[in-house]
From TrEMBL:
InterPro entries reported in the protein's UniProt record: aa-tRNA-synth_I_CS, Arg-tRNA-ligase, Arg-tRNA-synth_N, Arg-tRNA-synth_N_sf, ArgRS_core, DALR_anticod-bd, Rossmann-like_a/b/a_fold, tRNAsynth_Ia_anticodon-bd
Domain named Arginyl tRNA synthetase N-terminal: residues: 9-92
Name by which UniProt lists this protein: arginine--tRNA ligase
PANTHER family referenced in this protein's UniProt entry, alphabetically: ARGININE--TRNA LIGASE, CYTOPLASMIC (PTHR11956:SF5), ARGINYL-TRNA SYNTHETASE (PTHR11956)
The protein's Enzyme Commission number: 6.1.1.19
Keywords on record: Aminoacyl-tRNA synthetase, ATP-binding, Cytoplasm, Ligase, Nucleotide-binding, Protein biosynthesis
Gene3D superfamilies reported for this sequence: Arginyl tRNA synthetase N-terminal domain (3.30.1360.70), HUPs (3.40.50.620), Isoleucyl-tRNA Synthetase, Domain 1 (1.10.730.10)
Species the sequence originates in: Deinococcus yavapaiensis KR-236
Domain of life, source organism: Bacteria
Upper classification of the organism: Bacteria, Thermotogati, Deinococcota, Deinococci, Deinococcales
SMART domains on file: Arg_tRNA_synt_N (SM01016), DALR_1 (SM00836)
One GO BP annotation of this record: arginyl-tRNA aminoacylation
Catalytic activity: tRNA(Arg) + L-arginine + ATP = L-arginyl-tRNA(Arg) + AMP + diphosphate
Length: 621
């Protein structure tokens, strides 16, 4: 076997490439798989590549494994390769491997194209509740994961400014306060806690009040009049103020956006006609002249979504009005750049300093937005069927590649203490209240510890706990939001991982104060204890890849826990006499600096991984 002099942080990927190259030298091309060996088997990593080569070359797998062991070029950090029957196993050199992990380049290749992630899309008539919290956190984390993996990402937020819910809140405002609502709002606001004293909360209360009003049916003409004004764009400024209020909640969660797309702009842009024109030439679309669909424009879904009781989907009704699904199809076509139509302008500066843009009839055309190579729509699983139709419609329009790259990140709904939430009935729990409670509970847990900025630590710990509670399960699982579980600061939670990161940081700080530097590390003195820890750190690239492939951040959340558990296990490890044997500061010279280098890398790994989830690490806990 030969040794490479190239240092890489992703040793498994390097081994995969090395095995594939050795296979080509034997006369066959394969897709090798490299995995950690089971605890009861020899070696650290292994591959069953010999089975694939045996099939292609018509030779004995054990003999091929032996040939691979002799010819494979091993990356730095791998001591030797050994054929174990038909398997090829690799044995790591602890010092060289840890050095490769610590010093290896963690560069990420820039991927071509653009990924558009649309999330949030809260009706602009009330405050965000915990059901929306899951949407925002999932979408924001997915955007972060794709960016970390080298993708260019555009985050969109859809604003339904012409819908009935927005109309009802605005109608209620003027109906209950006909002599001017501003004074009423100010009077209400001064009596509210800080987290609630905003326009979205006030209009949300009026929305509930209207829907509980026994005279609501009599008020229908007035509500329809407001809807007509919204469609005409006459109340845009008022909806914008509502959206700005809602965005304060999103910003507090750490979520930011690139573009707001407004329903009224989409309707006025001619998107619908452009999309229907693209579909008209398809043999799957038609204008029936008889039967129950006479006069409508319909699409046959039987080939794309098998098993439907009625595969005929109405896109445009016989009276000329479009269905909601038709509008969703048009928007998806635009996201992929199948046509242009919107104008854009700056909307507001976000906390990071980045500008948030919005579609607007008074804006300017731009090719900077949309034109995606992949689209991820974050919508709860009750919208799974419409999203399947949106995906299929791209194939109907012969945009097959775009159809394959159209994803619905479906997630289970959120219950409130076992009860389904309803904004109309007022059965909700606002995200702002949850944020305030989370920070208060975090501060209480921190107790009387002497912290430089207890409020800032509580903010990071509280928000981290909330985000993690929404991300640690597979998205399709329903969440029953319960205070004690969601805000737990121990167990499988963000604070557990945050504390591990802070612990690592403190070790680095103490070493720095003592004048120590990892530059003087003697990696040859490291043991299997450090090797096991470095192997967990080295998994980061494959975790990121898995999260992108599965379109889910839950694998990243589990990895953050794995990192914290591995580090805590190493930190607390004791020798046979019960004495801690991994104390960095008490280690012999050379080993001390090598362990310090690994702790520095572990701290960076925890901060980076939690960052993919949108979770900050406080400087102290």
């Amino acid at each position: 076997m030969l040794k490479s002099t190239v240092m890489t942080v992703n040793v498994k990927a390097a081994l995969k490439s090395a095995v594939e190259e050795a296979g080509r030298a034997l006369g066959a091309t394969i897709e090798a798989v490299v995995q950690e060996t089971p605890p009861d088997k020899p070696g650290d990593y292994g591959t069953p590549a010999a089975f694939l080569l045996a099939k292609a070359l018509r030779q004995n797998p054990a003999q091929i494994a032996a040939k691979l062991a002799e010819s494979v070029v091993l990356p730095l950090g791998v001591a030797r390769a050994e054929a174990v029957g038909p398997y090829l196993n690799f044995f790591l050199d602890p010092g060289a491997f840890v050095q490769a992990v610590v010093q290896g380049e963690g560069r990420v290749d820039v991927k071509p194209g653009k990924v558009v992630v649309e999330h949030t899309a809260v009706n602009p008539n009330k405050e965000l509740h915990v059901g929306h919290l899951r949407n925002v956190v999932l979408g924001d984390s997915m955007a972060r994961v794709f960016k970390a993996a080298g993708h260019r990402v555009e985050v969109q937020n859809y604003i339904d400014d012409t819908g009935r819910q927005a109309a009802e809140s605005l109608f209620a405002r003027d109906h209950y306060y006909p002599n001017g609502w501003q004074d009423a709002f100010e009077a209400w606001r001064v009596n509210q806690p800080a987290w609630k004293a905003r326009l979205d909360h006030w209009l949300g209360e009026l929305y509930v009040r209207l829907n509980a009003d026994p005279r609501k049916a009599e008020l229908e003409p007035g509500i329809r009049d407001v809807m007509h004004k919204l469609e005409a764009g006459e109340l845009r400024t008022e909806i914008e103020e509502m959206v700005k209020a809602q965005l304060q909640t999103c910003f507090a969660l750490g979520a930011e956006y690139d573009l707001l797309t407004w329903e009224s702009d989409i309707v006025g842009s001619g998107f619908l006609k452009r999309a229907m024109d693209l579909l008209k030439s398809s043999p799957y679309c038609s204008h029936p002249t008889e039967g129950k669909y006479a006069g409508a424009f319909v699409m046959d879904m039987s080939e794309f979504i098998p098993g439907l009781e009625d595969p005929t989907l109405v896109l445009v009704r016989s009276d000329g009005t479009a269905t909601y699904t038709a509008k969703d199809i048009a928007q998806q076509f635009w996201k992929f750049g199948l046509f242009e139509g919107l104008k854009y302008k700056a909307f507001m500066e976000q906390p990071s300093g980045e500008m948030l843009y919005t579609s607007h009839p008074d804006g300017e055309p731009s090719g900077d937005f949309a034109h995606a190579t992949e689209v991820i729509n974050v919508i709860d699983d009750r919208q799974s069927h419409p999203q399947k139709i949106v995906k299929a419609s791209l194939a109907v329009a012969e945009a097959n590649e775009q159809s394959e790259r159209s994803f619905h990140l479906a997630y289970g709904t959120v219950l409130l203490e076992g009860q389904a939430m309803s904004g109309r009935k007022g059965i909700t729990l606002s995200v702002d209240e949850v944020l305030a409670e989370a920070q208060a509970r975090a501060k209480a847990v921190l107790g009387d510890r002497e912290l430089g900025d207890a409020d800032e630590v509580a903010r990071k710990v509280g928000i981290g706990a909330l985000r993690f509670a929404m991300l640690k399960s597979e998205p399709t699982r329903q969440i029953d939001f319960r205070w004690d579980q969601a805000l737990a600061l121990t167990g499988d939670t963000a604070p557990y991982a945050q504390y591990a990161a802070v612990r690592a940081s403190k070790i680095v700080q103490r070493a720095s104060a003592a004048g120590l530097s990892s530059q003087r590390a003697d990696f040859a003195r490291l043991t299997t204890l450090e090797l096991d820890l470095a192997k967990v750190v080295a998994r980061a690239p494959e975790i990121l890849e898995a999260s992108v492939r599965q379109h889910s951040p839950h694998v990243v959340a589990q990895y953050a826990l794995d990192l914290a558990t591995a580090f805590n296990g190493w930190y607390n490890h004791k020798d046979e006499g019960g004495k801690n044997d991994t104390n960095v500061m008490a280690s012999p010279e050379g080993l001390r600096e090598a362990r310090l280098a690994l702790v520095e890398r572990m701290h960076a790994a925890l901060v980076e991984t939690l960052g993919w989830l949108g979770i900050e690490v406080p400087s102290e806990m």
